[in-house]
C-alpha cells in the first residue's frame, strides 16, 4: 500500500541535521505495517497530479497557520475535499489535523491559554494515550460529520474521525524525544514560557506513540479496502 506524504513545512536546518525532516519521521512511525511511501513538498507547490496517485494520504505538520495567506493552503484544501470525494483515506497530523478541519468547514484558532508543548495525556475513545505535542493553534469547531475521538483539558478536539474518509490528530505521534529537545532548544526560548519548556524537558521519555501508529495503519488498510 502506497502512502503519499504531503509535506507542509520543514524543520530548520540546525534541527533537521539531528532529527531529520517530517517524511522519515512518519516512515519510522509506520515501519512494519507494509507501507511504501512517496513525498510531495506541497509547501513549495509540488502537488500530486491526482488524489489517486497514492492509496492513502498523510498531511504533515508545519510552522504555518492554516488561516494564513500562503499559496499552497487553498490548493491543499481542495485536494483534501477531492480525496474525500474519491474515498481515498486521509490522515492529518497537527497542521494536517487543522487544515483537514478547515477544508471541510471547521474552525481553527490560536488556543486562548497559549502553547501546548511536550508530553500530553489524551483521553482517546480507546483509552488514555500520552503523545508529544507542540502547538498553539487547534481545532475550535470541528466540521459537520467529524467525530471527536480524543480530548484533554487543553485541547477539546485532539483527534477527529471522519467516518469512511479521514483521521487526524493534533499531537505529534511522529515526534521522538530528540525532536522535542530540538524544539525546546531552537524554537522555544523567548516564544514558549520558560515553565512550559521546563515541563516539556521533564516529560522527555514519557510519550508512547505505538497505539496511535497502529490506529493510523488500521485506518488506512480498512478504508483502502485491504485485508489486515
From TrEMBL:
Short name of any one Pfam family annotated for the protein: GATase
Whether Transferase counts among this entry's keywords is no
Q: Where is the Glutamine amidotransferase domain?
A: 53-176
User: Keywords in UniProt for this one?
Assistant: Glutamine amidotransferase
The UniProt entry, under InterPro entries, shows: ChyE-like, Class_I_gatase-like, GATASE
Q: What is this protein called?
A: Type 1 glutamine amidotransferase
Please spell out the taxonomic lineage of the organism that makes this protein: Bacteria, Pseudomonadati, Pseudomonadota, Alphaproteobacteria, Rhodobacterales
